[in-house]
Amino acid sequence: MNRLTAWLRPQGAVLNEGGGGPWGGRPGGNDGGGDGDGGGPRNPWSQPSGPGRPRGNRPGPAALDELLRRGRERLGNGGGRPDLGGRPIWLYAIALLLLVWIVFTSFHRIGPQERGVVLRLGSYAGTMSPGIGMSFPAPIDQVLKEDVEAIRTIDIGSPTAESENLMLTGDQNIVDLAYSVRWNISDPSLFLFQLKEPEETIREVGESAMRAVIGTVSLNDAIGPGRTAIETQVAQRMQELLNAYGAGVRIQGVAIKQADPPQAVTESFKKVSAAQQQAISYLNGARAYAQQITARAQGEATSFDKVYEQYKLAPEVTRRRMYYETMEDVLSKVDKTIVEAPGVTPYLPLDRLPKARPAEEAQQ
User: Is residue 200 scored above 90 in pLDDT?
Assistant: First the structure.
């Protein structure tokens, strides 16, 4: 409280100098309200600030200016800029901004799937591994982060009916192919600086490799069971070409999505394919029948060999047995009855007995 009173005392003296309160007194007295010329009230802020100063036509510093000046003197060195230890505060502000700039541009966090390519004055200076890396502050060093684990896909051709990607096969046929190439970055520095347009280069290399491989296979292999071998060969050829270019790319695989004949001959091709399938079915049936006949003939030959072995042991008995078996087999299929013994009654229906006997057995 005493400090506040001590501070207000000189301020009140400034505002009240000349008598009559902060607005001054009248001319020639302590309660006047006019100026020295006796014309109207005096401007309170143009009053001289100290006693004994001339009150003529020469104006002195206003009381408000004096108040502001004294306030500036209390805050600092009279220039309106407070200092810390004899230095202006803006120097500390600049130093703080410089420190923040160095920290945020010199330390870099590289993710587990990323690599950081360091450019020093625009030239390649190194690659940062995952973790916290440090470099010179910008603009001296610049760090470019690249995801090297992400699998990226480029689609070549379209499985829709609007566009075709026609290629010539080894047997002079045309096939419409749509396929995709999966790849990722193996060396980010080569990927960024070796090729101007790496993705477009990968697309063109994929088309070149596919056409080279398709030109060595038949149409049936391209649209049938040979797809897997074609995909493997295309991936290998693409990797060899990209390594020669120094692209910094690893081919993960090639997948054929569509392999069809051109749209103009699709119906005819379907008919040809159906005829080929039918021909293959007939060939398979013929082979199966031939195998059955061959197996039956081999079985009969084996049986005849066994009978022949028995015939050599007892020729007469075997001959008579074969005769009886043959006659039984032949006569069981005819309607005639042969009677050799005399004394048989002629009116018996002997010719119907073989037919009636199976019917009776069926009823029983």
Answer: yes
